[in-house]
Structures are given as structure tokens and as C-alpha cells.
Design a protein that fits this description.
By secondary structure, the protein is mainly beta. Helix content is about 0%, strand content about 60%.
């Protein structure tokens, strides 16, 4: 069984910063790509940033230059440093991971989400 748990969300004023964490636990033989997504009320879930098993990263245009995704491979943990936050960044943030589990095959797992609210 594999679980992803996000943390670090909260309420912050516009211009402020938050750092989200996503910890993968359970029977894990390896993790390929990981990513952050977000869903605002009444909107579809959208990609925020992804990071491969190497060092390649990808960002949504709306967060480029403000958000930074990173991984600690030893801890099976992924981070999202969010700076210069805007009210439009308000959403539930979810992490996902492509995990090689007990079956030996990769499967996609999602966390339960963490709320980020940016006040103007």
C-alpha cells in the first residue's frame, strides 16, 4: 500500500510564501515522476508543476518564476516553494507520484490535498 500525504497549506496574504510538502510512504521500490496539481472552486484540476526522476521540471505558465518544485529522493518527499502568491493561486493543492510498488509496475497515486488560501 502506498500513501501520499501533503502538508504546508494555509492562509497567507498576497505576496507571501508557503512551502508545500508531499511525503510518499508504504512499500515503494522506486518513484518516477511526481507532480503538483491544484483545483479551485468551480474549476477543473490543473497542472502546477512536475519533476521527473532526474532533474527535469515543468511549470504552468501561471506559476513560472514564482514556484519551485524539488525532490528529496532519500526521503521520498517532494516540495513546492510558492513565492509571490496571488489570490488566484487559491485552491486545493494535490500531489501525485508514479510509484513502482509491490507489483513491480508503476502506478499513479494521489494525495488527499491541502488547502492554500491567498487573501488580497
Amino acid at each position: 500500500q502506498v500513501q501520499l500525504v501533503e502538508s504546508g497549506g494555509g492562509l497567507v496574504q498576497a505576496g507571501g510564501s508557503l512551502r508545500l510538502s508531499c511525503v510518499a510512504s508504504g512499500i515503494i521500490f522506486g518513484i518516477n515522476g511526481m507532480g503538483w496539481y491544484r483545483q479551485a472552486p468551480g474549476k477543473q484540476r490543473e497542472l502546477v508543476a512536475t519533476i521527473t526522476s532526474g532533474v527535469s521540471t515543468n511549470y504552468a505558465d501561471s506559476v513560472k518564476g514564482r514556484f519551485t518544485i524539488s525532490r528529496d529522493y532519500a526521503k521520498n518527499t517532494m516540495y513546492l516553494q510558492m513565492n509571490s502568491l496571488k489570490p488566484e493561486d487559491t485552491a486545493v493543492y494535490y500531489c501525485n507520484a508514479d510509484v513502482i510498488n509491490l507489483t513491480g509496475r508503476p502506478s499513479l497515486y494521489w494525495g488527499q490535498g491541502t488547502q492554500v488560501t491567498v487573501s488580497s
